[in-house]
Amino acid sequence: MNFSLSSKALTSTKADCLVVGIPEKGDWPESTIQADKALDGMISRLQKDGDITGKNGSTLLLPLTGQPWGRLLLVGTGKNDDRNLVAYRTALAAAISAIKEGAAKHVLLTLSDTPATGATQSGSEKGRLNLIGRTLEEQLYTFSEYKSEQPPERKLNKVTVTASGAGKELKGAFNLGLATGRGMNYTRDLGNTPPNICHPAWLADQAKKLAKEHDCIKTEVFDEKQLKKMGMNTILAVGQGSSQPPRLIVMEYRGGNPKDKPQVLVGKGITFDTGGISLKPGAGMDEMKYDMGGSASVFGTMKVLAETRPKINVIAVVAAAENMPDGSACRPGDIIKTYSGQTVEILNTDAEGRLVLCDALAYVKKYDPAAVIDMATLTGACIIALGHHASGLLANNDELADELIAAGERTGDRAWRLPLWEEYQSLLDSNFADMQNIGDRSAGTITAACFLSRFAKEYRWAHLDIAGTAWNSGKAKGATGRPVPLLVDYLMSHAG
Ligand code: BES
Ligand code: MN
Ligand code: ZN
Predict the structure, then answer these.
(1) Ligand 1: which of 234, 285, 324, 350 to mutate, most ligand atoms within 8 Å of CB?
(2) CATH assignment, 2-162
(3) Which fold has domain 192-493?
(4) Strand runs (DSSP E) across 262-381, as ranges?
């Protein structure tokens, strides 16, 4: 697929399909006015006759003759006065979805001049070009590796996006959007890969592959033996019931000044979560292949860095293990000495994410991080609290939390903060060890983060619970690629 920006006059670019936006009311964008002129007022007539309403996300595809464009796709962009990032993304997705399986090979897309509001990415041309790039990649994603019959090849092979200029700034924004979309798709590929393929050693191989493809990324993998020597006992405890042994995967991207403290990303990489001896119910258990979604988002973000080369230092650490019930599996009641030296009584083997993360969080202290952010599909309680629209955010530092919330708002990959007050900590008191790995039934997302916080005391730290946002259930079952946009936006705001 060929994507490019063009600032030439609309009529001087031939294409198989021209895409323009139509608001429900209010002023038309400049390119819609130009297209209407070139088409002798056809769009005005369609609106007057009621063939198009401009309702957000509606589309109408029409054939053209004797024009530089073979077809016209009209996309409703909604009401001018309440057009926000969500509405803008809906219009973009509808437009791309209407053309992606069609006959047009070359599409000319004008939606970058759709007026939209707010301090989000849709509020500026730069931001809109970023969103267009990202949404193009997101919408054109397919995952058919495990189907015997491959879908027919798409005719669409070229998309030209119009912009007010083709200078460095606008091009950079568009390219960052495309890279973000590809990073998300890589995250989705990893998440969608079945758990009989995607196990800890396979994930480690993906990191090695990434390092091989991009010389700016260095990878180091610690296997079971090394983990034992290091004292990463909780990662080992979670993985000990599986015939696929755990791995700790480290990736380094050093694009900044060597003296700059690194941003550190930590991912939960449970390649399958049966619950272990505290076995999960059977229904829908297949979805627990996405329990490495946190680490998949770390991989996706590293790919974006490798492709765009910002001036920043980023270290990524993935704690990968498979949580299985077995004769050698850890049990409720087991007490483990963590890498940090603190002891944990495992009361529920299904609360395994915090166990693998606590060793990884203690480990990354050695990098003297500017900040540490961990991503994890950590608690079902987070889905109950926030549903599927916002990731849960908990942090020991207000400034860091605010920055991540802002990055989520800008990109539409939103997060919502929950408290991490001291009062919750006593829920983790154990009679036999320094702490237990679960609280009671209350505040499940908070007690999980409370547990993690005990291993992240010595640096600025934030935790994203992505249980509700990393994948879709139901008919559109699959990984979403979140929270890659949030992470990329946050990291770019720290790049020199
Ligand atoms: N991976 C799950 C959390 C999860 C559940 C993610 C549903 C996405 C959808 C995690 O390991 C888990 O099992 N958490 C338990 C914690 C409990 C035992 C304290 C949960 O949420 O039930
Ligand atoms: Mn679990
Ligand atoms: Zn889990």
Answers:
(1) 350
(2) 3.40.220.10
(3) Aminopeptidase (3.40.630)
(4) 263-273, 313-323, 335-337, 343-345, 371-376
